[in-house]
Amino acid sequence: MAETRELATGLAGVLRIGFTITTEGPVMIRLIETFQTRHPECRVDLHEVDVWDPSSALRSGAVDVLVNWLASAEEDLTAGPAIEHAHRVLAVARHHILARAASVSREQLADEQVAKLPVSFPAALADALLPPRTPSGRPIPRTKNVRSIQEIIANVARGEIVHPTIAGLAVFQRQDITLVPIDDLPAIALGLIWLTRKTNAKIHALADTARSLDLTEPSGQATEHNKVAPPAG
User: Fold this and answer.
1) What CATH number is given to the structural domain containing 107?
2) pTM for this one?
3) Is residue 108 part of a domain?
4) What is the pLDDT of residues 98-151, one digit of tens each?
5) Are 124 and 68 in contact (CB under 8 A)?
6) First vs last Cα of the chain: how many Å apart?
7) What is the sign of the dihedral through the CA atoms of 144, 109, 88 and 179?
8) Secondary structure percentages of the chain, helix, strand, coil, to 5
9) Is the dihedral of CA 210, 212, 217, 220 positive or negative?
10) Structural domain tally of the chain?
């Protein structure tokens, strides 16, 4: 009877969930585990997608739902519920002058250089993650072309750039990088995104599960300053 009910409501089968190197984490896993407990006839398959062009996986049909930062203004996509709100920090080299600061403001970024992200990265999301201007209108120089997250990390560690990022991201937990709280950037929402014309019962069920869980308290430590991780491996 349960199987018949699942089939009748369109929940049986596979739901493919995409994520990037910066959006996979414990909150996403908790959501998936809860969803599968509630809907055992729907199997979840996870797919890592291109961090610089995450929406293409939705449009090609490679994934049904994307877990990503809710800042993009792409008209063919639906922004669903948030599952997390993450604090903002500035990644700087350990020897950088800002590494000694208790916190930094957006205004200070005008005196620094940041990464110039690939053109495939959604413009609205790039502006949300790396503000183009300070509150007073000064431009924040995007000067260093990068092709991967690893290139961003390496250039931060060398002191070539600074990088506004998300508190708690494992990829930035390194001994040669300091994470300094940005005190005037709001927490950014992580949530579910899907192609509007391909909305289905499985996607709605996942979104309903997300709304029912208490997942959206700001995450990451606001006091990440000078946090050092042990060497990997």
Assistant:
1) 3.40.190.290
2) 0.85
3) yes
4) 999 999 999 999 999 999 999 999 999 999 999 999 999 999 999 999 999 999
5) no
6) 49
7) positive
8) 30, 30, 40
9) negative
10) 2
